[in-house]
Write a structure and sequence with these properties.
single chain, alpha/beta, Rossmann fold, Chloramphenicol Acetyltransferase, CBS-domain, three-stranded mixed β-sheet, 21 helices, globular
């Protein structure tokens, strides 16, 4: 089915009525598969059935008490199972309470609103995040309120909990960005919509809805949405249709340099630079490693240059874009020049360190770079890295040059035998995993961080395509493929890959624990001449093989 959110797998809490119901209908009609949860399980079931009557197999439903940690764990797991993964979480469940000034308010009122409005958002993010990371790019949308931004008398608990949703959302967004999870997290702050949350306000106005709305609008200095839940749902569908296109911050990499500010007499006039072959090759390597284009790298280099010249951390420059926007109705029949210049804004941190750059690199690439430095400089940079990142690089540096351990990737795709085909497919679908590594899922006992528990076998990507999503990969894994030792010479690794026509092979230590994997990309980087990109083809054909 086509639509703005086609292919998305969405869990909506508090989805049986009001805003949740409107969102569920909109997301289903725009191509998503839905898991609808609500404390009123019967109402959720009726809504799912109504949606399925219009759009076959679009929705499932579960009874769900969002206050309960165990209920969250259950609902997220069954939703991911039933939908074949989870790519969007909408934390919509919420309640209001009686209007009460501070001296009349109760602990019970605060506790109820805290548990449903705020703690449930934390529990949702906690339990859904592993599934969202596996399905990345993914999104979390937390429904806050205008009341989380603007206070009003008698609404202490509601104001506080909805403000908490806003700030907690920012925290989760920063965590995801810092760790390059490719999971976007946003809070949405609608004005008041006609849902049961407005009942206390209407009651205080003697049952007069218009009077209640007028009072709220006056208190909050805002116009009310009235019965516009459908418009809000439409906005939510639009938001989630766009997050796949957002340029991930990690793609831009980290910047390091002297941090020296320039002065006006240093402003350039007309200056051309021809990059030597080794720098051109390094840029090409960077683009492949980070999954970005050469244009992105050069734009970021330009941003750094502008920052150094102007002494400004935030810089803006023009970026030319062209092409017909696919989501514009009738664009294919329009006549005209579809070109524009848009402002590109870059925040360049002059205090970023070389260690930050190493943390952004794949561990094997970072180890290759450190190999070129004296031991003293190696240790200095490793000490400034995050301990977890430095540990992977240190392990690689311990291996002798020319061994499988020295060229392997220490973070291949590793899953336990009880993982399902659906989980495996979601994992290898992640954009940051190279095609070579994605071709092979390594099966091992926990722990799954290298070095893992005992190596059990592998599952090839093609085999995953032949089995249903709920099938455990332990039932279909290949137990005959022998991994290579981390001390094996490169010649042996090359022979194994060539003999069995593999693009990736597991690497184990003497305890039969997985320590990494060697991909054909890793191997080619080591067996090709250093200057192979700059070589003339005729020259390459006459050069003896190494």
């Amino acid at each position: 089915m086509s639509g703005r959110v086609a292919g998305k797998r969405v869990l909506i809490t508090g989805g049986a009525g009001g805003l949740g119901q409107a969102m569920a209908w909109m997301m289903a009609r725009e191509g998503a598969r839905l898991a609808i949860s609500d404390v009123d399980g019967a109402a959720a079931e009726r809504l799912a059935q109504a949606i399925n009557d219009e759009i076959a197999d679009a929705a499932v439903a579960y009874a769900h008490d969002v206050r309960c940690d165990e209920d969250w764990a259950r609902v997220v797991e069954v939703a991911a199972r039933d939908l074949g993964g989870l790519s969007v979480l909408v934390n919509n469940a919420g309640v209001g309470g009686p209007l009460a000034f501070a001296e009349d308010d109760t602990v019970e009122n605060w506790q109820r609103q805290f548990e449903i409005n705020l703690r449930s958002v934390m529990l949702g993010c906690k339990h859904a995040m592993p599934h969202l990371r596996a399905a990345a790019p993914a999104a979390i949308v937390n429904i806050s309120s205008l009341a989380g931004l603007v206070a009003a008398p008698g609404m202490g608990a509601y104001n506080a909990t909805k403000a908490g949703v806003w700030m907690y959302t920012k925290t989760v967004a920063l965590e995801a960005a810092k760790n390059d999870w490719n999971v976007r997290c946003n809070s949405v702050h609608p004005v008041f919509i006609k849902t049961p949350i407005l009942d206390p306000f209407i009651a205080m106005a003697g049952g007069d809805q218009d009077k209640a709305h007028e009072r709220l609008a006056r208190e909050l200095e805002s116009e009310l949405a009235g019965n516009h839940s459908s418009e809000f749902a439409d906005m939510l569908a639009w938001v989630n249709s766009k997050f796949d296109r957002v340029l991930r911050s990690s793609a831009m990499g980290a910047v390091f340099g002297s941090g020296r500010e320039a002065t006006s007499d240093q402003l350039p006039r007309d200056h051309s630079v021809l990059l030597p072959a080794e720098i051109t090759s390094a840029v090409d390597d960077l683009t492949r490693a980070r999954g970005v284009t050469v244009s992105t790298v050069m734009q970021f280099a330009w941003a750094v240059l502008l920052s150094r010249i102007t002494g400004q951390r935030t810089v803006v420059f023009g970026e030319t874009v062209s092409g017909r926007p696919a989501d514009l109705d009738g664009v294919e029949t329009m006549v005209g020049l579809f070109i524009n210049t848009l402002p590109a804004v870059a925040d360049v941190d002059p205090g970023a360190r070389a260690a930050d750059v190493l943390e952004e690199m794949d561990p094997d690439d970072a180890a290759d770079l450190l190999h070129e430095l004296p031991d003293s400089q190696q240790e200095l940079l490793l000490e400034r890295m995050e301990p977890e990142d430095a540990e992977d690089v240190r392990r690689l540096l311990e291996y002798e040059e020319g061994t499988a351990g020295s060229l392997m990737t220490p973070v291949p795709v590793i899953l336990p035998p009880e993982a399902t085909v659906a989980e495996a497919m979601a994992t290898i679908r992640q954009q940051e995993i190279s095609p070579a590594l994605a071709s092979l899922v390594i099966v091992a006992r926990p722990p799954l961080e290298t070095p893992t528990g005992r190596f059990l076998g592998v599952v090839h990507f093609q085999r995953l395509l032949r089995y249903p999503p709920p099938e455990a990969i332990g039932n279909i894994m290949d137990k005959d493929l022998e991994p290579v030792s981390d001390l094996a010479p490169i010649a042996h690794v090359t022979r194994e890959l060539a003999t069995y026509n593999l693009t990736c092979i597991p690497v184990v230590n003497e305890q039969d624990r997985v320590v990494g994997a060697v991909s054909v990309d890793d191997l080619l980087d080591h067996i090709l001449p250093d200057d192979w990109r700059a070589m003339d083809l005729d020259d390459a054909e006459t050069r003896p093989a190494t």
